[in-house]
Design goal:
By secondary structure, the protein is α+β, with helices and mostly antiparallel strands. The protein is built from 18 helices and 22 strands. The strands form five sheets. Strands 4, 6, 7, 18, 19, 20 and 21 form a seven-stranded antiparallel β-sheet that branches. Strands 8, 9, 10, 11, 12 and 13 form a six-stranded mixed β-sheet that branches. A four-stranded antiparallel β-sheet has the order 14-17-15-16, with helices on both faces. Strand 6 and strand 7 form a beta hairpin. The radius of gyration is 24 Å and the shape is globular.
Length: 518
């Protein structure tokens, strides 16, 4: 049973009357009137939009622990796409291969990676445990040098004389929401195409600055996530199969968490792997891997009598995924095996906030990329290390005096862990110098605001919003040969003004798509 709230006939009638009244009696709308008119137009098409979203797979598991496990609701989405200058969008797309190259280079420079995280590991037990696994597998000898990365680099459009995208973070494990983003683009093509004319069309065009005569759908860049990500997983399976004697039809293992709320996002990948690439998928939790998987004397991984070619982590990115030693034993087994990891523990460690900050130091990116480093440096926000060995006193003092200009970040993924505003100063004063090692300080990026129509569980709100723009990339290499390196689609997460965190799964944001402007 799907939990769905529909727009009532009375609401639709009232919205139609409001929209007609707004359009009949004015030439120019004030800002409040524009917002009301957009809301009236959105209310008219709410039911069509929500139905289209649900019937095209934009579904999310209910959070209510008492609900039926099969119950789902509409994925939180924006009804209309979010504007971004086309040049800024294309600049971010062009950086994807460089992020791929950087992640792989850092992951293979194990000495630099381990040294960078040593202090953090003492203050953050989770990072420390991952680092311990990395050290163990390298001491034993790496069984599988082939690594698959499905990364996502997230940016905000920093406002100023020349707006430019600054990187928020680089995700190297469980870079999710790609399939939702693929279907939101389809939703926006439907809305902008189906409702271009009439009163609703005029309200939508007014929202984007009129654009008379333009086909609005042409401003939506095509999203390739549901093609590129399964293709990368399939390619990894094929390379493993080619290099492994006797491997006939190995599977791809999806390591998932138990709650499964984001089931649609990984199920679409599973279906594409089978329907397009004829590759089978097993979905298991870390606990199930510990109970059912084994490794033979050659290091090949077996699960329920199936050989595993690729271990794709959709869980395992935070301490909550390892409630006991059972889950940690599963992670170690996967890392020690000959299966291709997506990501390997080293790729995951490259995504740590401390590594992001360390790479911003003079000469760090240049160590790995050479002349190409300047292109990446152009999107770096201000980043500062904390704790012993860091010259942090001046920046800590400034952050305590003017906390609104900073974000305090721990080594965590998944949303809901950062500190903003006055909480930055409070937390910094609470932490000992040793405890500060588990955090970095980052410049607060200040994006411009836009009106956005946000829908969650069938209800809509028109609000002033900002967005994060994520760009996926895929990479498959063994340190000598790059079998694959490509841009793999995009994600827009939109949140209301005043909401600091940006995770959709964590309940802070909705999924949108980019609307390219000149």
């Amino acid at each position: 049973m799907w939990a769905l709230r529909r727009a009532s006939p009375a609401l639709v009638t009232a919205a139609a009357a409001k929209l007609h009244s707004d359009r009949r009696g004015r030439r120019e709308l004030s800002a409040p009137s524009r917002c009301e008119s957009l809301q009236a137009a959105a209310q008219l098409i709410l039911r069509d939009s929500v139905q289209y979203a649900e019937l095209n797979g934009l579904l999310y598991g209910l959070k209510d622990p008492g609900a039926d496990q099969s119950a789902a609701t509409q994925t939180p989405v924006a009804m209309l796409p979010f504007c971004i200058p086309e040049k800024a969008f294309q600049d971010c797309v062009a950086l994807s291969p460089l992020w791929n190259k950087l992640v792989d280079a850092v992951a293979r420079d194990v000495k630099w990676l381990h040294a960078t995280l040593e202090t953090v590991a003492k203050a953050d037990p989770f990072t420390g445990r991952l680092l311990k696994i990395s050290k163990q597998i390298h001491e034993e000898g790496l069984r599988q040098p082939l690594m698959l990365g499905i990364h996502r680099s997230d940016y905000m459009l920093h406002s100023g004389a020349e707006p430019r995208c600054l990187q928020v973070e680089l995700n190297t494990i469980a870079s999710s929401m790609g399939c939702h983003a693929f279907h939101v683009e389809k939703l926006h093509r439907f809305v902008l195409g189906r409702f271009q004319e009439g009163a609703v069309g005029r309200a939508i065009r007014g929202h984007y600055g009129d654009l008379k005569g333009d086909d609005l759908t042409k401003r939506l860049p095509r999203n390739v996530t549901l093609e590129a990500i399964p293709a990368a997983l399939s390619r990894a399976q094929a390379v493993y199969k080619a290099q492994t004697k006797g491997a006939k039809d190995p599977v791809v293992l999806f390591v998932v968490n138990d709650d499964g709320r984001n089931f649609a996002d990984w199920c679409f990948l599973e279906y594409a792997l089978w329907e397009v690439h004829n590759v089978r998928v097993l979905k298991k939790s870390l606990k199930e891997v510990a109970e059912k998987a084994s490794m033979d004397k050659e290091g090949r991984l077996w699960l329920e009598e199936e050989e595993v070619a690729v271990s794709y982590f959709r869980a395992g990115y935070g301490p909550e995924d390892y409630p006991s030693e059972v889950e940690w034993s599963a992670r170690l087994l996967l890392e020690r095996s000959a299966a291709v990891k997506c990501p390997s523990v080293d790729y995951q460690l490259v995504g740590a906030k401390k590594v992001q900050q360390a790479l911003a130091r003079p000469g760090a990116v240049e160590r790995f990329l050479g002349p190409d480093s300047a292109k990446l440096r152009g999107c770096f926000a201000g980043l500062w290390g904390l704790g012993p060995g860091e010259d942090d006193q001046a920046i800590v003092k400034l952050a305590c005096e003017k906390p609104e200009g900073f974000v305090l970040k721990p080594q965590r993924e998944g949303g809901g862990h950062n500190f903003y505003g006055k909480d930055v100063a409070v937390k910094l004063k609470e932490l000992s110098p040793q405890e500060r090692s588990a955090y970095i300080l980052m410049q607060r990026i200040l994006p411009g605001l836009q009106e956005s129509v946000m829908t969650r569980q069938g209800q809509l709100k028109v609000m002033e919003c900002l967005s994060e723009f994520g760009f996926y990339s895929v990479y498959l290499g063994d340190g000598r040969t790059a079998h694959l390196s490509a841009h793999a689609g995009h994600l827009v997460r939109t949140k209301a003004q005043g909401v600091d965190e940006g995770g959709v799964a964590a309940g802070y944001a909705v999924i949108s798509s980019p609307f390219l402007t000149s």
